[in-house]
Amino acid sequence: MARIIALQTHDVRFPTSMTLDGSDAMNPDPDYSAAYLRLLTDAGDGLEGHGFVFTIGRGNDVQVAALRALEGHLVGRDVERTLADLGGMWHELVHDSQLRWLGPEKGIMHMAIGAAVTALWDLRAKREGKPLWRLLASLTPEEIVDLVDFRYLTDALTRDEALEILRAARPGRAEREKQLLARGFPAYTTTPGWLGYDDGKLARLCREAVADGFTQIKLKVGADLEADIRRLGIAREVCGPDIRIAVDANQRWDVGDAIRWMEALRPFGIAWIEEPTSPDDVLGHAAIARAVAPIPVATGEHAANRVLFKQFLQAGALSVLQLDATRVAGVNENIAILLLAAKFGVPVCPHAGGVGLCEAVQHLSMFDYVAVSGSTDNRMIEYVDHLHEHFVTPVEVHKGRYFPPGAPGAGTEMLAASIAEYTHV
Amino acid sequence: MARIIALQTHDVRFPTSMTLDGSDAMNPDPDYSAAYLRLLTDAGDGLEGHGFVFTIGRGNDVQVAALRALEGHLVGRDVERTLADLGGMWHELVHDSQLRWLGPEKGIMHMAIGAAVTALWDLRAKREGKPLWRLLASLTPEEIVDLVDFRYLTDALTRDEALEILRAARPGRAEREKQLLARGFPAYTTTPGWLGYDDGKLARLCREAVADGFTQIKLKVGADLEADIRRLGIAREVCGPDIRIAVDANQRWDVGDAIRWMEALRPFGIAWIEEPTSPDDVLGHAAIARAVAPIPVATGEHAANRVLFKQFLQAGALSVLQLDATRVAGVNENIAILLLAAKFGVPVCPHAGGVGLCEAVQHLSMFDYVAVSGSTDNRMIEYVDHLHEHFVTPVEVHKGRYFPPGAPGAGTEMLAASIAEYTHV
């Protein structure tokens, strides 16, 4: 019988603030970082489970301390039994009554649980020799709903309704998997639009994005209206009328600001307005959505848990759901939110502007396509073109599409050399 | 010129789980704990600023790590200038863009900022020789609104509206301060109702509460309907018809459960139903409030920040606002929420079921009465009768009322001997 014998952590930080990659109206100088977790076993097969929380620098050490607080729940456990009941494991971690006080189900502790859960999924996928998306898409509807905690969701989505959604999608799974392997999954790129780039770099990167086959780009906005108008003008001119241009305010505005600002940007043809205000403000987003229609409101990268997403959907406060895979509690809560989105007919376009997020979230979107929503309509995975070289299985993006990873695992494993080189001291 | 020269932290845990003090439907065995912070200066006056985050045990070490992450913001600062602009200090801490990613404005990092902010207020109150409630109540309306960050609030409360509320309350300040000193502030007690107590202990403690002059008690419910009905029957019989009995489900239910359960408990005459479901679920609470009316819905001890409270008020989702002083970001965010409550005409009855919370929150309720809401109608401070002996200025509660502390400071200073004895190793 194999056991989990160690939980190792690493405080990994990349000095991205030096180039202003990732800069926006609220995050002027992020250092893309990972609070990184490895689960070791004595199975003798050389396989480890890897997971991480994406952060942007300071405080990554606190996030690592939160990972360490989970050691007692994980080390010593029977590997087979744990991996066979990841719904039960999720429940044990999220409902530890003392740790729960520190959220509940939000912030540093919840994200730490997410990294641990995802590391367990990584280990399971490696042991089964499958990429995570394919492992998840091979589960029965009953096995999938057993992974989900329906507490606090039943006024919007019951277990039976989730089963119906999954059963309805089942007959088409094989055909969609074939499509996915042949054609990939749509992507959009945020690379041109960071706020710290000058106009020349913006224009050049827009041109490259179109040449690379992307059909949507995204620009950061929200700090200076005049500058936003100038930058959108450049982007629209370079890209032409057929490329979709989304904008992202990164929570910069109050409700009234958002409405006024979007009136001014409306003439540029806006694909969506992302994070117009506080990520906790369901009612504020709903008010903005009504006022700026038909421009879609997108949000979710800072939404703490499934209860927030439930309300955003109930209130019609978003029409593009931007789940962040490492902010909610791992693969299981991602699945809960994919099911909620399917119930409400809202597309999920996951947040991936970070280190390792592209590698991780593609598995969830591909599972969504094959086994849950059954569609790629209006669905895109964000793409940013940096730091992929630090991962064991970097994404394969060609002509604006993600091609499915074939290597076993959840995509979350960073190269040992990169961990060593970028460990924060 | 004096500077802050050190930030010291302590992981303090009391073994309350041994007696089931504090036990409820979601927290069966809490160990009341404090992630504790001391700010030292070189002023030579012997004064220190103390603050803490209340937790219930495991994870208190992670909370301490979050306190430590604030060292760079605090150590080395000019004491006078910092204390003269605590609005600016709050803004610097909450809007540190890298730390903000770990919430934003919620969970471990936000609570750590709250402890630091409150420690600064404690230091300022000691230096001015005033208890915090009196210090706050001596500020001008303009000085008070300068402490508040109105970002994300302006669709419900603007700076000008807040000023109006404070100006309207100003003429009555002196008279209300006199009233407060003479008659104290109303309290209610949670002491009889912890879920882990047997029926005999429940009856005895109910009898004692009435004899002690309390006019409201609170019972934990939500784990077992039959047991709740039995325990409410005992409490109502012992207390008689005139004592208000509130119930507290500690987030145990989904929306439908809450509505059904409260139908069954309605005949006992319920003063309020507290935390019926997820503390993030504004829309769920609103649905429950509509269904269980006229029973008031109370919540807030786990509401992460002012944006959540804004929505609870906008949606009519609560009619008793139970702010937790150490969950939001310190004195400043408490003031923001008191102002929101005043705007909506909703009474604030702060959460105090923890260690040190009674000592801390009384200052905020008394400030609210003197300078903001101007009323004690339907306002009560929770009281629990344990662990007060560990504080330098323990609460003075007589005949069911809190009497105003006179000692300088925020009430947050724990005895050095208690810190030493209960430091977790």
UniProtKB/TrEMBL annotation, chains A, B:
Going by the UniProt record, its keywords in alphabetical order are: Lyase, Magnesium, Metal-binding
What are the boundaries of the signal sequence? none
Q: Where is the Mandelate racemase/muconate lactonizing enzyme C-terminal domain?
A: 199-295
Q: InterPro entries annotated for this entry?
A: Enolase-like_C_sf (IPR036849), Enolase-like_N (IPR029017), Enolase_C-like (IPR029065), L-fuconate_dehydratase (IPR034610), Mandel_Rmase/mucon_lact_enz_CS (IPR018110), Mandelate_racemase_C (IPR013342), Mandelate_racemase_N_dom (IPR013341), RHMD-like (IPR046945)
- Which CDD domains does this one have? rTSbeta_L-fuconate_dehydratase
One Pfam family named in its UniProt record? MR_MLE_C
Q: One GO MF term, please?
A: magnesium ion binding
The cofactors named for this UniProt entry are: Mg(2+)
**Biological processes annotated in GO:** amino acid catabolic process; carbohydrate catabolic process
Note the superkingdom of the native organism: Bacteria
The answer to whether keyword Acyltransferase applies is no
Q: Which Gene3D superfamilies match?
A: Enolase-like C-terminal domain, Enolase-like, N-terminal domain
Please tell me which top-level EC class this enzyme sits in: lyase
Record-listed E.C. numbers: 4.2.1.68
Catalytic reaction equation(s): L-fuconate = 2-dehydro-3-deoxy-L-fuconate + H2O
- The name this protein goes by in its record: L-fuconate dehydratase
